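Dataset card, provenance and construction

Sequences and ligand SMILES were collected as paired inputs. For each pair, a complete structure of the chain with the small molecule in place was predicted and serialized as structure tokens. The example below shows a pair involving fe (ii) ion. Curators did not alter the output after generation; any descriptive sentences attached to a record were derived from the structure itself.
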Amino acid sequence: DFSSGTPLEPYDFLFDAAVEAYYKADWLSVILNMEKALKNKATVQRVKADCRLSCANQTAYGEPLAGLGVPVPGAGSVEDLGFFQKILKRADCVNSCETEKLGSPTLHLVSQEVELEFKKRTPYNYLQVAYFKINKLDKAVAAANTFFLANPDHVEMKQNLDYYRMMAGVQEEDFRDLEASPHMAEFLLGKKYYSDDSFGLAAAHFEAALDEYFTADKECRVLCEGAYRYDGYNYMEYSADLFQTMTDHYIQALNCKQHCTVELASAPGRDKPFEDFLPSHFNYLQFSYYNSEKYEKAIECAKTYLLFHPDDEVMNQNLNYYSAVLGEDKAKTITARQVVKQHIQHSLLEKELLYFGYDAFGITFVDPDTWTPEDVMPKKLRDKQKAERETAARITEEIGNLMKEIEVLVEEKKKDSTEMAKIIVPQEGGAVLYDDIKVTMTSKQLNGSQRVLLDKVISDDECRELQRLSNAAALKGDGYRGRPSPHTPSETFQGVTVLKAVKFGQEGKVPLKSSRLFFDSSEKVRKVLESYFRLETPLYFSYSHLVCRSAIEEKQEGRTDLSHPVHVDNCVLVSDVNECVKEPPAYTHRDYSAILYLNDDFEGGEFIFTELDAKTVTAEVRPQCGRVVGFGAGKENPHGVRAITKGQRCAVALWFTLNPSHEEKERIQAQELLKMFSTPVNAEFSPQEVNAKSPKVTEESQEVTEESPKVTEDSQKVTEETPKVTEESQKVTEETPKVTEESQKVTEESSKVTEESPTVTEESLKVTEESLKGTEESLKVTEESLKVTEESPKVTEESQKVTEETPKVTEESQKVTEETPKVTEESQKVTEETPKVIEESQKVTEAPPQAQQEQADKKQNTAPSKEKLDAPADLPNDMTKPAAKTAGKTSAKTKTDPAAQTKAGSPAKAKPAAKVKPATKKEAKQKTQAKQENKKNPKPAAKQTGKASSKKNSASDSQSSKDEL
Ligand SMILES: O=C(O)CCC(=O)C(=O)O
Ligand SMILES: [Fe+2]
């Protein structure tokens, strides 16, 4: 009964209630609930059907067919079918077209990571090195330049470019942008000529830019018609009915299409897209044509511009002026450009749909255009957004205040804790838990605090096995090998995490046994450190990897750098002021570090502890197999690695945290995977016993075979001797991918059964079937638990991040305010790029003193009077440029500061003032920096150092490099 307003009880709840009642033997309740469940299910079904039918009638595509009299209930209109027929045909057309041209569509799916690399133009980084190596300098330069444009903070590439610039045989034209989009290239050229007062050329390039713009727009928009993009994990739960699904996908595509405005207005290396990009073309054009005395065109472009901004005072004024010059009658016959009219119409319709989606389903839409008439957004939404903006502004302010308070508190706390630290000296010298392990040096002997040197933590065989694992993973892996070190151009670097190693093991690329050894030895180190440093709370892994650094033979000459610059693991070391800042990008949650060394057959590569100045060495450790240097990850322990000048140095680098929310989730996954692979009968059993127990073991023994040829013989014999497992049960067990403890038990039973009767008995089959089920179930459980473990750390991490990085919150909320559709005065502020109004550029010379005063006082604009038509001084032109082309009169022009620009709405005189600006302060600074760096003998290199500046020693360990290349 809907009229009563109480919602219908969900029938699954009712069903559950019935089942529960059943176990309690509450039969009445069973009946009541089950009946209700059935009834409600039927109701739900009926309601859904009714809704869809009546909606089909209400919102049919096209009018219901006339002459039918009463509409067929629920039929909708026949045109609906026509509409869907078109959809089906389009899908078929696209699908067959793509398949024919590209093969199976799934073939070309790429991960987001890969897509991002391309977006970042990473391929050109590699290309430039390659071309440089084969001495194709022009191509190397173009690649370097192309890469640099999208990565303007890339210090190394900047050095390379400077280096190339000095080389003989390199031409200025070589510095090309191989990825330049034609519309942007033309636009920039247009702007360049415009600012040089070459208006004829400017117009030609802006016209070309427009053509290219519409071509690019078409492509950008149609590329939005791809797969539905799920946010995060929500695809797991995504279930929507036909029209909702279509709506979601369609709105997403529309949003993407609207975003093309932004895409196309963006250029690499610019942090912001050009504002009002498309309209600005017509702004430049009208003025360029005017200056070329092409009044028809000027009028056409002014009118086109006014399609976007019909109330723009200056443009209206310009139009009036041009019309008067050309003759009003003639001017009237000139219309705005059709293509733009259509573009606007189309875009507005899209915006209406998007706002509908926003209003009805809460699917956010942020209009990227500045010209959308206010009433396109429903009033309800407008009011809501206004309220939200106000709230956001308030929150920003409050957060700002809070931040100040927090800063004060943190300062106080810092003082307290440094004083505390002086009093409570952490204890060390706890047990090392294993008989073999030796404490070789303590903090005292290492001239510091929270330091220890242990030996014999793992055996020689284990060292070799782990080094082999690193090399095998690098070889079989994904391009790790030969990767330049993130710390020095004179070494390469390869790393593998525990999870990656286990996955490789699972895929058979490396021995699973070695991956397990990696896991186990790092756990051993963790336990020992926890005990040795007498920690009262557990130590958790926060990151671990097995990493080898290799000297590049031909790059050792005259080398003065370190293999790993001096740094602190949990703060950013600013060595010239002896300070360490505990802030991101440092991994501030790290509390202890340990490096387990695997070999010593290389030259250099000593580990050093230093003072905070990063220079004074306080202790030095020569790596060797089984040796561990363990230390507190804080500012008491700046450290680095000396240059490796020959050979390969391998180590397991481990970082620990006392904060469980920072526990490495990859490691938990690795552990789960390892658990799945390990049978309860493991190393303790001989292969013989194992084989007798279960056919599954063949896989295990195969692994053993790889490792030790001796065992193979035995185990082979054993396999031959073991009673033949029936084909069926063999198959079943082969099919069970991963034997977990539970299923193993069942399998054992099944093999017992099979042993007893060589033929397949019904019983054995049943048991094996059960075992299969068991395995599936337990697999599911492991999968589920994996999911949970994967997900839960994220949440805690997230919340941790929030508390740690409060300043970010402010930024974020600021962004929110920035992103809300810009209707405010502020957002209409004229920016340097839009050819807008500059108050000061007002030409004063021609205006009578009185008018000058008036203008200054009231900021009021007077339309050019008819009498003044021949006086270009009052023309709606750009006062910031010499009016050499305007009727031969020169005028005094004032160059103004962008800060002096007026807000939209205030009277304005000058038009396109988008002068090409000199480099900003930041750019200028970069240039000088580059010059200084250039003195250092730049060399092309494919690595990305990025963040660390000369003063700051980044606390990032090799891990960070993973993210960079
Ligand atoms: O490999 C070493 O000895 C030290 C490495 C290190 O300090 C780091 O990666 O943070
Ligand atoms: Fe380190």
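Derived descriptions for this record:
Residues 853 and 859 are 9 Å apart (CA to CA).
Residues 567, 569, 593, 639, 957 surround fe (ii) ion (ligand 2) (CB under 6 Å).
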